[in-house]
Amino acid sequence: MNTNTVPSAPEPQSLFLRACLGLDVAQTPVWLMRQAGRYLPEYREVRRQAGDFLSLCKNPELAAKVTLQPIERFGLDAAILFSDILVVPEAMGMKLQFLEGEGPHFPEPLTRQADLDRLTLPDPEVQLGYVMAAIREIRRILPSGVPLIGFSGSPWTLATYMIEGGSSKKFTLIKTALYNDPGFLEGLLERLVTAVVHYLNAQIDHGVQAVQIFDTWGGILGPDEYRRFSLEPMARIIAGLNRNRPDGSRIPVILFSKGCGGYLETIASSGCDVVGLDWTTPLGQARARLGPNIALQGNLDPAILYANPQRIRSEVRRVLESLGRQNGHIFNLGHGMEPNIDPLKVPQLISAVREESRRIRTP
Amino acid sequence: MNTNTVPSAPEPQSLFLRACLGLDVAQTPVWLMRQAGRYLPEYREVRRQAGDFLSLCKNPELAAKVTLQPIERFGLDAAILFSDILVVPEAMGMKLQFLEGEGPHFPEPLTRQADLDRLTLPDPEVQLGYVMAAIREIRRILPSGVPLIGFSGSPWTLATYMIEGGSSKKFTLIKTALYNDPGFLEGLLERLVTAVVHYLNAQIDHGVQAVQIFDTWGGILGPDEYRRFSLEPMARIIAGLNRNRPDGSRIPVILFSKGCGGYLETIASSGCDVVGLDWTTPLGQARARLGPNIALQGNLDPAILYANPQRIRSEVRRVLESLGRQNGHIFNLGHGMEPNIDPLKVPQLISAVREESRRIRTP
């Protein structure tokens, strides 16, 4: 057998993977960013058992358990690994704390070249072995028809936390680095690219069937800076992923740069299979700009889950009708679930997506 | 004399007013959002004298003094009234506090129709008489060649503070109102439109020569919601302004919706003379989309003021070269000055704008 020949795998069956690859589906698949989280009482219970957020991330059994919770409760079309983007900087040697009610905190943020030299390139099987164990456990207990999505933060987004020391409103420190000391910033991004390639490839080896790159803070950059400091490192990551599996299947890559509706063409040039959209860019407009060969994910304003069931349904319909019968759409929110959402809103949302998308597809 | 005939005023001489109207200029005019503010030691001194921020806003002599400070120090091409957008809700009857280091706070935010019925329509000459007195004092002491810009918050942006009770990250309350109780929200916006029309017309009567509407939070809305809840009220305000003065001069209106690069065509349909841009939409792209009959203001990332003089100049050049020799551009930041900017950066910026724009315009 010619070793260059990739065995031709049968088309995937799951709605989610089919939509990622632009294949036809009878109804639109749906999952929700931060679908495993504080809005679920059963999550808060497991979190109490674990002690704190980081301990939960590092406990493979409990991480697997909370990953499954929204699948069991709601029957979503994909599961997403329960973890946090900041486990990568921690594995590179940075002290990480999650302060209750205040978010993540790096008490020793990066300020100079010497700080970079102290960062290590983590072996995902060692320093991030707990993530790999969680992935194996999730795949063991997850119904086989439900794909598992792995993820990482983008290098730019990770760098904002590593340089600012935590969440930021003004990004003074990283922007000062960007404009005054781009070599320092690029040195950090380069290390992060390598770490994330290893990390995501290990996730793929252990069983994730798609990966999403979360670029939460790309939108604070102007177009040239976005291209250089956010998109370019992500494109290098995508080029380094082992997306074609030995069985011939393909691992789709979803890229979500929040607040970057103006940069969609740049995003699509990254090599990703799916572009994630927030609610400020209509799906139909994105499709018109990017063409049919790249799938779209999104884009309901999560605040619509504060509304009544009729309004949720009409907003879901509006999102779906923006694309009509076209393939290549995964329904999602335009940002993560909020902790104060009533869990009863989720089945209303899911039913609306399934029923309305079937209706739209019925000739 | 036919009373319908508007006397034909001579063209304005100031670079700023000429650029607002698309007239030719020898160099690009420049002013900076929040140019009178905490980054200036002489401002901090006056603020100490006044006691607190709101007392400073309400003291016409001191408000005039800080309005002039950046003009005297830097020779900017326009002055902007020192005040705060939230004086309008306060004048409508809401208690307003500025908590040191925490920003504005309405201890009794609006939650229901009955709250709206308690709001009053302020007489700008009475409840906001201190603003009018400040405008008169500023015009008295401001060099006659420097135009004075008045301003207001947009109804949508004011409503976010009035409903959330202060600054917000997630805008849960106003979005819940938007999706579940749009009648309540529209009732509030309607009252704000009327109040702002009266307020800005009074500012014009007392001597401002241009007005800017600050729509800081339009960018959290999807396109349909932006049009209905942010743009539409602003368009009604613009239609209600007395822009043609008895002497034949025209009061230009600048509309700045931050984070709304995707909605520029909608913004331009408001009737404004100038569209303010943040740094995510290149000026050349905005001009290509909107045509030459509407002026543009912006759009340097304020974080560039953390950089060294060479970098500031090269970034200024990049902004200017995006439009080349085209008219109708007022140089500004894409957002307000930060309190920790070194004041010495401002003359570097201004010199760069003037020298580089003259160079670009030289055949």
Overview of this structure, please?
The structure is a homodimer of 363-residue chains. Chain A is an alpha/beta fold. Chain A has a single domain (22-361), classed as TIM Barrel (Alpha-Beta Barrel), CATH 3.20.20. Chain A has helices at 15-20, 41-50, 53-57, 60-74, 87-91, 113-117, 129-141, 155-164, 172-180, 182-206, 223-240, 264-268, 283-290, 309-323, 345-361, and strands at 79-80, 97-99, 103-105, 148-153, 210-215, 253-257, 274-276, 295-300, 329-333. The first copy, chain A, has a 7-stranded parallel sheet. Chain A has a two-stranded antiparallel sheet with strand order 2-3. In chain A, α2 packs antiparallel against α4 (60-74), α10 (182-206) runs parallel beside α11 (223-240) and α13 (283-290) packs parallel to α14. The interface between A and B is medium-sized, with 31 and 31 residues.
Write the layout of secondary structure elements.
2 copies of one chain form a homodimer.
Chain A: H1 15-20, H2 41-50, H3 53-57, H4 60-74, E1 79-80, H5 87-91, E2 97-99, E3 103-105, H6 113-117, H7 129-141, E4 148-153, H8 155-164, H9 172-180, H10 182-206, E5 210-215, H11 223-240, E6 253-257, H12 264-268, E7 274-276, H13 283-290, E8 295-300, H14 309-323, E9 329-333, H15 345-361
Parallel strand pairs in A: 1-4, 4-5, 5-6, 6-7, 7-8, 8-9
Antiparallel strand pairs in A: 2-3
